C-alpha cells in the first residue's frame, strides 16, 4: 500500500469507528475509537483461529507491521500532537506548580524507572539494564493520552492543566532517559555511543538542546507573527514551526518532543497574547484543536490495531498483568515523593496524590518506544507488557478518573499559597 492509501484507510476507519462509538458506545471519543478498533482486531484473531484457512490475521498483521507505528508516531505525528497539546496549556497556570512539575518530570521519572526496572527484572529474570529500559519507556505519562482523555473527563480546570503540563514535560525527559539507557545497553546498535560519560553528554544535549531550540524557534516565530495580521498565513506559520522545528531537532540530535513542547507553550501563551489579533487567535486555536482531534483519533485507532504486532504468550500476558501493578506503584511513588518533599513549604489538598496517580495515563508513545528497540530476545516480552499496561491505562483508568474525582469531592488543587 502507498502512503496515501494507508493514510486514507486510517482516516476512513477512524471516522467509521468514531461514528460507531458515538451512536452506540457513547464513550469519550479517543477511548471509544480504541475500544472499537481493539474489538475488531480481536474478532479477526478469533475468526482466524476458528477458520485457519482464511489467513485473515496473517494478512492484516503484515499490513499493520507495514504501517511502522513507531516511525509514524515518533517521527511524524508526535511533533504535531505535542505542539497542539502545549499550545493550549498556559504558562501562567504552569507557574503555580512549576516546582512540583519539575520534580515529577525529573526525580519522579528516575524513581519510577528504578522501581519498574528492579521489579520487572525480579518478575521475569530480565537483565537489569534491559528492565530499566522497560521502566524508562513505561514511566512517563503520555501527553497525547492524557490530553485526549482529560478533555472529556470534566476535571477541575486547574488540576487538568497541571496534570497535562506534567505529562508534557515528563514525556520529553522520559524519552531522553530511554535513549540514554538504550545507548548503554546496546552500544553496537545505537549511534549515541556508550559509557557513562556518553550517557551524560547525550542527556544534556538532548534535553537542554531541545528546550533551547524550542524557545529560540518559538521566539523567532512570535517576532515574525507580530509583523503580520493575516490569520491564514499565521496558521500556516505555526504549522511550519511544528513540522520544521521537529525535523530540525531530529537533524540536530536534540530532543524533538521537548522542542515541540517549549515552542508550543511560548506560542500558545506569549504569542497568543502579544503576536496575534483576536481573529487570528480564534482561528489558530480552532485549527490546532481540530488537528489534535483528528490525529488523536488516528493514533488511538492505530493503538487498537497494534494488537496484531504483540505476542500474547501465557507467560508474557502474566508478566504484563503484573506490570500493570508495578507501573501503578511506581507512579504512586513518582507523585508522592515530590508532594511530600514540598509539603513543609506548600499546602496540598488530599486529592492531589490519588488523582495524579490514577490520571497518569500511558499511551502510544510507550508502544512506539517498545517497537523501536533493537531486536533482542527480550523485545517481544517488553512489547507485550507495554501494550497490556497501555490498554489498561487508557480504558480502565481513562474511564474511571471522573468517578475518582467525584468520590473525593472534586476539590483537589495543586500547590497554593
From TrEMBL:
Localization, UniProt: Cell membrane
Topology of this chain in the membrane: Multi-pass membrane protein
Transmembrane stretches in the record are: 6-24, 31-52, 72-91, 98-123, 129-147, 168-186, 198-219, 254-272, 293-312, 318-340, 352-374, 380-401
Any one cellular component term from GO for this entry? plasma membrane
| One term of GO molecular function | sodium:proton antiporter activity
Q: What is the similarity comment for this entry?
A: Belongs to the monovalent cation:proton antiporter 1 (CPA1) transporter (TC 2.A.36) family.
In the record, biological process GO terms are: regulation of intracellular pH; sodium ion import across plasma membrane
User: In the UniProt record, does the keyword Membrane occur?
Assistant: yes
Residue ranges occupied by any Cation/H+ exchanger transmembrane domain in the UniProt entry: 16-405
Return the protein name: Sodium:proton antiporter
Coarsely, its chief localization is membrane
Q: Which residues form the signal peptide?
A: none
Q: Does the keyword Iron apply?
A: no
What UniProt keywords apply to this chain's record, in alphabetical order?
A: Antiport, Cell membrane, Ion transport, Membrane, Sodium, Sodium transport, Transmembrane, Transmembrane helix, Transport
